[in-house]
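Q: Structure for this?
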Amino acid sequence: MSTRLATGGRLIDRSRQVSFTFDGTTLRGHPGDTLASALLASGRTLVGRSFKYHRPRGVIASGAEEPNALVGLGQGDRFEPNARATTTELFDGLQAASQNCWPSLDYDVGAVNAALSRFLPAGFYYKMFIHPRAFWKHVYEPFIRHSAGLGRAPAVEARDPDRYEHFHHHTDVLVVGGGVAGLQAAKTAGESGLRVLLVEQTGHWGGRAPVDGGTIDGKTPEDWIGDTLQALDNMPNVTLRLRLQGAGLYDHGYVLGYERLADHAPDAPGPRHRLWRIRAGRIVTATGAIERPLPFAGNDRPGVMLASAVRDYIVNWGVSAGDRLVVVTNNDDAYRTALAHHRAGLTVPAVLDARPEGGGALMAEAQAAGIRVLTGRGIAQVNGTRALTGVEICAQAGEGTPLETIACDAVAMSGGWSPVVHLWSHCGGKLVWDEAAAAFRPDPDRAPIGQDGASNVIAAGAANGQGDLSSILKDAEKAGKTAARDLGGTPSDASAPDAEQPAEAPLAPVWMMPQGAPHALRAKAFLDFQNDVKVSDVHLAAQEGFESVEHTKRYTTLGMATDQGKMSNINGLAVLSRALNAPIPQVGTTTFRPPYTPVSMGAIAGEARGPLFQPIRRTPLHDWHETHGAKWEPVGQWRRPYCYPRAGEDKHAAVAREIDATRGSLGLLDASTLGKIVVKGPDAGRFLDMLYTNMMSTLKPGRCRYGLMCSENGFLIDDGVVARLDDDTFLCHTTTGGADRIHAHMEDWLQTEWWDWKVYTANLTEQFAQIAVVGPNARKLLEKLGGIDVSAETLPFMAFAEGQLAGHPVRVFRISFSGELSYEIAVPAGQARALWDRIVDAGAEWQITPYGTEALHVMRAEKGFIMIGDETDGTVIPQDLGLDWAISKKKDDYLGKRAQARSHMTDPDRWKLVGLKTLDGSVLPDGAYAVTEGTNVNGQRNTEGRVTSSYHSPTLGHGIAMGLAHRGPERMGEVLTFMRDDGKTAIEARIVDPVFFDPEGAKQNV
Amino acid sequence: MLILTCPCCGVAADEIELAPGGQAHIARRGPDSTDAAFEEYLFLRDNPRGVHFERWRHAMGCGKWFHAARCTATNEVFGTYPAQTTEPPQEIRDRIAERRTDQPKDSRA
């Protein structure tokens, strides 16, 4: 069993204790512990259950690569699933819970899967759940959904109470990884004076070097790290950040950083996580290497750990993995673990070295310390289920016949090291297979490139395939110099520090232990611990024809868990390559995708939540609406009043009242959201003739004209009234949602097609408010306010006047979207509220009534006026809407003209605009389809039309609707059958003229 | 996340400041064009693995449209230039030729 040693632990503060809970039991650790080290110190070797077979699992690693020790952290609003215990720093009050077990970690019902594992090989679900077809929806899918996923999701009602934010950071050189290579590269680059950012994902600098030993410039690694940090601290151009991971590398030197500020200190002020959006001229990836497990039967048992992790726990946290540790290896590095364990006063009954000749100096040192070394040996299988009792040893060259049983309670395994090439590979960096190290390392000739076509990523140290301390530091120093030189800096003459470590004998690749293991052993030799993929599964995939590594990955789920196969991928593809009898480089790797470890959703969202999710645009009259009880409707980014219900009134009653008041006397509308674009210049008329379907160049100053805008594809994109202010100047009104889009559309054509035309555009939407005064008493109101002659003779329909209204500078447009006598008054935004208040006061004698967007919609529908987005959906041309009168026949060209001449556009069978009146007077469901005889190829009813707008008209006392119908206008009086939302109930409506109210226009022509 | 230098205001703009506009140097076809010519103008676009001339707008900056010559496979940028031209400037074509000896000559380049 694992326990806390009496001495040692360079990262923990033994003078203080912190308490935490695991599955409700209170345990203790020290500041500086990770959750994993504290659990091991408390003797917790069993920490979770595996995903597929529910096998008992313990901590296996000591860093970000951990696949087993995943826990749920916190509770309620702060609950977070699938947190790695190895990267969770301990704090007082931490609450952790094991995952994927029920009713408890020790007694787990799902563990029955382990007994059935023989029947649950790779691809089981694909093969099993395909027949019978009918079982899918009600049997298979609910079952799979129930068993899918590892940790449980936070409760539906949970709301993350923490803050998150984004940081933008620009730097010359970004160094990712704060081990000795990263420190050296940052120092070298920093000495050139360039801006350097050095980031490290853990809470401490120096990486593995203090654990692995040796000397640097005659000092211990720990002293050298301290001195180098001091030197970096003294450079004002260098920024150092701990707990900040280089999570993803993207185009043109863009790197996402994931900083965890408060995970280890939940009471710290400020954000919990921060997403760094870094732009760097050069990126040095000094991301180190990850040790590989050895594939032998039972390698997933609690107590079997990576050799480097066993050593880390001893040196960093003063925790032993067990009393009797068997070390199994194919390289020299694992002897350091044997020696560390031995020096801690514990027993190493044997080192099993798979290499027939064994290792070099480190092996000799172990032997000198009295440790028994067996060469050419491996583990046949592991004894004990929840706690190890021993291992059966065998000849690596054989088939697993046990030669001897060695009693032990822990196993340290090492299959060699894989450089962490994730960042290098994220954005196109290629890898090369290093035969000697049996690992993929970055290919410097095929590095990721920046916008100038030059390599912008430099791998350094162990991440670049370097093994010993001396070459790691030399490589890092070279990387720092290259980065500095590339960016025009002058690196100092200082050379890399001298480092010394015992020389190491070459590694011998071991992809199966023993090499001739039969199926029974292969079916217990795990590659991917989190997703329970075994050597036998990859063999099965190969046997069933999955030759591509990407296909094998998906079939077996190898490397698809939350750890993304950091420990398993190389072993997995090596097994595949053996099964396919193809060299490893030919099999290749799967794709490395960002982020390196999961990034919290909070960090991705940053500040963009709640009221800051997206900006809200408010008109200058927003506050008045708010205090007068407006119910809001989002229109684009704007908020507009939908209606103004009075006490005891529902929305429908309010809308009906507003319409009655407007049609009967006087209504008031805030139309400020209308787009207002000024188009000015000698060629403005010519330009607008191209943009609108009708002729704008003939419009006389002082007059208005309704216009339609189409895309070059012929479809209607916007409409509005254009006013000619003077010979050179037009004011184009757009829809509320269209202002920015239409302004951009104008600029696109002006800048890139007709750049020689003398035209200037400006979007003045927010500079002016627009107040619509609508109804039979509208003229009387304006006369009362005084200042502008609004008589029918001076200001006829579709004309405008400029002047002072009640002392405010205004432009009064006599235009109407309701069929009433109506004036739209444009006033500088800053004076809008003052004018509005004057209008409300002056209008009291006519019971002036503010109305919202719904009343506006109903009144325009009563008049048969189209609305962009209701009657149009991007597939509708003006001709479909009976708007031929607004399309100039005289113009040679306008945007959309050629497209509207295509055969499909001129087809008489198109659906066209009509009015629809239900036979029973009810309201048609919006969007309902008219059905006709027969069915289409999908067995759905054929259709011959659809409703585009539908309302109850209080003016007429029945439902009114507009819609598009097959050859609609030719079928006046015919009855169409529409389906209600249930798809079963029919509702009949007659095709009528879309103008339901005042077709002669008597009300507005006064 | 590209960086493109706006030739109008000179800013080395991050992609979040920019709006893409598709292939550049497409001649507009009007009412007198054939169906085939109009189809090509409106719908048919090159999709090269290699050098591409494309339209961008500095939407969150100076608002101007410009053109960029970019390799679609590597995102190498050979240069940006004002949109008021019907073909890539000589200087851009020279830079592509200099860096991409393996590239087949673009019909417009």
